[in-house]
Structure formats: structure tokens, C-alpha cells
């Protein structure tokens, strides 16, 4: 066959077209998609949305691999921050696609994006929440003479600026008539710095969010004088995604939420074991993790976005607006246009999960089962107690504080010790550290309280007195002695 110039050009063109198609197909099969997720490892409210997914490889398990995602390589970038504001900065810069933060930082994120960016963020799921505001707290050094917020007039108080704890602190001062601008000196300190300041008495008080209000007292160098639960205002942590990422990769957003749902399930089935894992990943003691997220814990693990969560976000705007921290023209109800649970509902549908059942499981996640001492059923979680014995993987649960104290004496007689002892507030069911609680005995019944004023009110009602945990133990030991 004679090879002419025309034939050569035609053949070359065909080869070029074929090569282009082949390379295009190869390029498509080698497509890389970055997924950048920012969490807060030490803020254990974000654990099931952050460290549990990351360390257990749950996102990789659920990422799409067919259709437009066939042959895709995922570059998953995880980062961790000590509070929400830095995550907002990274999301604004386009460095983070999915971020986790508390209610006050979240609404600041919303307003900041609407003011400064061509895209928005979307609130797509709740991580953990408290209907009463439990989790935020104000602490003083362990040897401080201060017993209430009123004692902080003229004091130097630190708090992570822009955090949920910052919003709580400003509102709490306002409620008791202390002007946070003129009557206290507020400085911004990250949790680890605030902890050091408390330990070394360099600060009069420090306010913080989950889990530091319980962690620092658990470690023995701080004492809580105000609990966010006293505000009776709901608080939460949630998941935000950049709108451009969600529009381009809705399947990936759904995959992330499927991973979150699985992480919640894993925790609810094995709370002590997963709490121990979270301790390894966050350096937050497992007892504190369990206190917040375990059964009858201070926070409820619930991914849905319901009215109570919308109220939390709306309240955040109301407080920040009144304090001049956001534009006074922002309507609190604007958060309702910001949230979108359609991705979560799709994730539930793909996992064959019923929405109402997920809610019910979360709301009914309370102490149950049999008493470790007597075998009787635990019927009232607010009157229950728990021991976590050193060297044991699981907690020991009791229907009453009286039964727990009897078992505690047995354990001590055998040379065993409890790493932590949990009781629950009689009025509200909040999980408490026994050593930091107030007790009232009424006949055979022993009740625990977070607040001394609540304990005194109940003691007056039943004609009894208020005791600390040490005095309660001494009383029970004396009653157990032969008469």
C-alpha cells in the first residue's frame, strides 16, 4: 500500500483523536476529590462527627464509588481546632468544606458568610445538645472563695471569645446585673490556656464549653460556680457545610451523614468502650466523655434538626444581637432558612432508618437494666447511681444512691476503688460527679442535686439537712455499724 501524505495526515488525526479519548477516560478514572473536614477533638460533643468517624474509617466506608464517582480518589483532610471561630475562618478561605461548632459560633458563621462571601454555609445536622444548656460552665480555682457569679464583680475572667461559653457568660452576667464591659475584665483564652490559668491561680475565673466545665473539676484544680443548665436555655453543637461543596457533591454530604449516624449507633451500643477510644484520640478522660454522651448523660446524641435546635440557634442570635455582637437587624428566624435536613433524611433513607425511631432512641437513651447490688430493675434514672471501678471496662449501675454506697463499701473492703462515681440531679436528671454534688436523705431515700439552693429547698420540704458526699458516706457507714 502506497503511503501518501494525505493518508499519513488522516492516520495521524485518527490516532490523535483516539489518544485524546483514551487520555480523557484515564483522567476521568483518576479524578481526585478533596474532602476537608474540621472538627474539635477535645470538644467531645463533636466526637461522633469527628474523631470516631476519622479513626474508625467510617467516611471511607460510605463514600460513593459508582456513577460519576467511579474510579475517584478521595483526599480526606482532617483538622482539629480548639473552638469554632477558627473553623469559620478556614471555611471562608475555602480550606474547609465541612465544619463542626457550637450554637453561638455557628450563627456567627452564618452571618459572616452572608456578609463576606459569595457562597453560604448550610446547617445540616445536630451532633449533641442539651435542652437546658448543660455543658457550658464558669469555674474558679479550687481554693477560690468565690461561690457564685455575683462574687466575680471586679474580677478578671477568661473565656474563648466567640464561643458558646462566651455567649453564655455575657448573658449570665447581664441577668444578674453585672456589666461585662465595665464591671469585669474579660480576656480571651483557649481551653488549654484557661486550664493552666486556673491551675496556677493566674485568673479569677474561666468560662468554657463542653467538656471543660466538668473536666477541670474532675482533674482537681477547679471548682464550678455556675452551670449552663441554670440558664434553662437549649444549647447544641452541629455540622455546617459550604453550599458550593454541597451543590457539587451532595452524595458526599450524604455519605458523611451516614458515617455520623453509624458513629452515633456505635456509641449508644458501647458507650464505655467508645469513650475509652475517644480518650486515646482526644486526651479527655473517658469518665468525662461518658458523663456527657453516655446514657442519662449531660448531652443528647441526636442528629436531627427539630424545634428545640432551631430555638437554640434563634436564642443565640437574640443574645448576640442584644449584646451588640452581631448586626441588630438580623432576624433570629433567619436560621430557619439556613438549616436543611434533606441530606440527613436521605442518609437515613439509604440506611433504612426511620426518622422517628432515631429521635426516640436518642431521647430514651437513659440508664436501665438491673441494680448491680440487688438485681432490682432501674426504674427512675434520676434516682440512679453508677460506679466505674478502676480496671473495669464497664460501669456498675444502681437503682438508688443507697445501693451504690453499700456496694462502694464492699469494694473498698476488698481493696478496690472507684475511679468515678456518678449520681443524678433529682429535679432534672442531670448526670453529676458525686464528689461535687449536694445530698438530702429522707428516710431510706437519698437524693442528689447540682445546686445547693435546690438541695436546701428539698431538705426544708422533707425536714432534713444538706450534706456533701463525704458527710453522706460517713452517715451511711455509721448507720451500717452494729447498734
Structural account:
The protein has helices at residues 5-29, 51-56, 58-62, 84-92, 103-116, 164-175, 191-199, 212-218, 243-248, 250-269, 271-282, 286-293, 307-322, 335-338, 342-350, 355-363, 401-413, 452-462, 469-480; strands at residues 32-39, 73-80, 98-102, 121-130, 137-141, 156-159, 185-188, 205-208, 222-227, 235-242, 300-301, 385-389, 396-398, 418-424, 431-433, 438-442, 445-449, 466-467. With 483 residues, it is an alpha+beta fold. It has 3 domains: 32-131 and 234-363, D-Maltodextrin-Binding Protein, domain 2; 137-231, 3-Layer(aba) Sandwich (D-Maltodextrin-Binding Protein, domain 2), CATH 3.40.190.10; 381-480, no CATH class. The strands form 4 sheets. A 6-stranded mixed beta sheet has the order 2-1-3-10-4-11, sandwiched between helices. The chain is globular, with a radius of gyration of 27 Å.
Key traits:
5-stranded mixed β-sheet, D-Maltodextrin-Binding Protein, domain 2, 483 residues, 6-stranded mixed β-sheet, alpha+beta, ABC transporter substrate-binding protein
Summarize the structure.
This protein is 43% helix and 19% strand. It contains 19 helices and 18 strands.
CATH class of the largest domain: Alpha Beta
Examine the secondary-structure arrangement and name the CATH architecture of the largest domain: 3-Layer(aba) Sandwich
**CATH H level, superfamily name of the largest domain:** Periplasmic binding protein-like II
Structurally, how many domains make up the residues?
Answer: 3
CATH topology of the largest domain: D-Maltodextrin-Binding Protein, domain 2
Share of helical residues: 40-55%
Strand order of the largest sheet: 2-1-3-10-4-11
Instruction: Flag low-confidence runs.
Output: 15-29
Amino acid at each position: 500500500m502506497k503511503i501518501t501524505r494525505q493518508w499519513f495526515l488522516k492516520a495521524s488525526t485518527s490516532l490523535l483523536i483516539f489518544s485524546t479519548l483514551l487520555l480523557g477516560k484515564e483522567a476521568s478514572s483518576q479524578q481526585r476529590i478533596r474532602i476537608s473536614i474540621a472538627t474539635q477533638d477535645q470538644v467531645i460533643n463533636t466526637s461522633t462527627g469527628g474523631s470516631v468517624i476519622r479513626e474508625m474509617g467510617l467516611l471511607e466506608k460510605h463514600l460513593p464509588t459508582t456513577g460519576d464517582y467511579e474510579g475517584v480518589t478521595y483526599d480526606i483532610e482532617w483538622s482539629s481546632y480548639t473552638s469554632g471561630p477558627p473553623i469559620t475562618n478556614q471555611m471562608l478561605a475555602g480550606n474547609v468544606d465541612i465544619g463542626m461548632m457550637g450554637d453561638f459560633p455557628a450563627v456567627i458563621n452564618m452571618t459572616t458568610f452572608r456578609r463576606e462571601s459569595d457562597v453560604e454555609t448550610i446547617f445540616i445536622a445536630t451532633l449533641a445538645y442539651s435542652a437546658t444548656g448543660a455543658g457550658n460552665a464558669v469555674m474558679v480555682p479550687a481554693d477560690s472563695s468565690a461561690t457564685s457569679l455575683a462574687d466575680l464583680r471586679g474580677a478578671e475572667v477568661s473565656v474563648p471569645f466567640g464561643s458558646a461559653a462566651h455567649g453564655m457568660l455575657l448573658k449570665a452576667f447581664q441577668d444578674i446585673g453585672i456589666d461585662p464591659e465595665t464591671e469585669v475584665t474579660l480576656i480571651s483564652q483557649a481551653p488549654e490556656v484557661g486550664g493552666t490559668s486556673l491551675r496556677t491561680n493566674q485568673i479569677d475565673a474561666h468560662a468554657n464549653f463542653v467538656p471543660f466545665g466538668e473536666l477541670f473539676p474532675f482533674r482537681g484544680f477547679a471548682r464550678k460556680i455556675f452551670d449552663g443548665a441554670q440558664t434553662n436555655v437549649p444549647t447544641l453543637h452541629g455540622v455546617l457545610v459550604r453550599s458550593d461543596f454541597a451543590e457539587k457533591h451532595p452524595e458526599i454530604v450524604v455519605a458523611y451523614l451516614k458515617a455520623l449516624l453509624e458513629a452515633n449507633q456505635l456509641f449508644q451500643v458501647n458507650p464505655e468502650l467508645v469513650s475509652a477510644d475517644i480518650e486515646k484520640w482526644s486526651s479527655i478522660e473517658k469518665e468525662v466523655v461518658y458523663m456527657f454522651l453516655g446514657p442519662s448523660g449531660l448531652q443528647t446524641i441526636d442528629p436531627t434538626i427539630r424545634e428545640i435546635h432551631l430555638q437554640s440557634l434563634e436564642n443565640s442570635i437574640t443574645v448576640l444581637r442584644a449584646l451588640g455582637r452581631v448586626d441588630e437587624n438580623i432576624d433570629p428566624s433567619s436560621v430557619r432558612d439556613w438549616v436543611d435536613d434533606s441530606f440527613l433524611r436521605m442518609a437515613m433513607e439509604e440506611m433504612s432508618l426511620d426518622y422517628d425511631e432515631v429521635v426516640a432512641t436518642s431521647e430514651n437513651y437513659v440508664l436501665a437494666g438491673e441494680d448491680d447490688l440487688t438485681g432490682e430493675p432501674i426504674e427512675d434514672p434520676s434516682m440512679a447511681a453508677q460506679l466505674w471501678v478502676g480496671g473495669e471496662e464497664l460501669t456498675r449501675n444502681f437503682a438508688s444512691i443507697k445501693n451504690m454506697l453499700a456496694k462502694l463499701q464492699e469494694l473498698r473492703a476488698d481493696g478496690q476503688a472507684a475511679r468515678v462515681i456518678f449520681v443524678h440531679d433529682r429535679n432534672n436528671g442531670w448526670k453529676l460527679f458525686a464528689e461535687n454534688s449536694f445530698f438530702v436523705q429522707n428516710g431510706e431515700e437519698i437524693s442528689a442535686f447540682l445546686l445547693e439552693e435546690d438541695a436546701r429547698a428539698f431538705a426544708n420540704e422533707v425536714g432534713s439537712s444538706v450534706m456533701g458526699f463525704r458527710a453522706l458516706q460517713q452517715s451511711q457507714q455509721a448507720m451500717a455499724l452494729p447498734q
